[in-house]
Specification:
By secondary structure, the chain is mainly alpha-helical. The protein has helices at residues 5-8, 36-41, 43-62, 64-74, 80-94, 97-102, 109-121, 139-143.
Length: 156
């Protein structure tokens, strides 16, 4: 992974990193999954969870060095030096112009449709192509909108 800077250091800086987004494919990390029944029957709890996670990411955005310190305190086997080198990249991947406008965790439903179409084109759905609306919802993001910080990528 591009965020595994310690492992990539073995390769050195003379490498080419190519992200899916640079090929025109949206790539969403930190995706959360829930069953249809959980979304239908307990959407408020899911929204509270996403709101809390979003607040945590907002704190990390404002306090990246302290966030790494807390991570290393919880998981001492993690190398603080490497994580402090990595946190700017993690924040750049977690926050962008879309999150600045629509809040942390936002995504573009049109990109989901595009990904499904591409995967269908290359034969990844032998049992039939799913409908985009059957594999995602914006309901939880809408319910948690007030809690999700509207922040862009930090200045480098």
């Amino acid at each position: 992974w591009i965020t595994n800077t310690q492992a990539l250091s073995v390769v050195g800086d003379d490498r080419i990193d190519l992200l899916l987004s640079e090929l025109g494919l949206a790539s969403y990390a930190n995706v959360y999954f829930a069953t249809d029944s959980a979304i239908e029957s307990d959407s408020e709890t899911l929204a509270k969870f996403i709101g809390a996670v979003a607040k945590g990411w907002g704190w990390v955005h404002a306090n990246p060095e302290q966030a790494v310190d807390k991570l290393v305190a919880a998981y001492p086997e993690i190398d603080a030096g490497w994580e402090k080198k990595t946190i700017p990249l993690v924040l750049k991947l977690s926050f962008d112009d879309n999150t600045k406008t629509d809040g942390w965790g936002t995504f573009d439903p049109a990109s989901i449709k595009s990904q499904i179409a591409l995967l269908d084109q290359i034969g990844q759905y032998p049992n039939g192509r799913p409908k985009a609306e059957d594999v995602h919802t914006t309901e939880i993001l809408e319910l948690s909108a007030a809690e999700r910080p509207k922040l862009g990528a930090p200045a480098t």
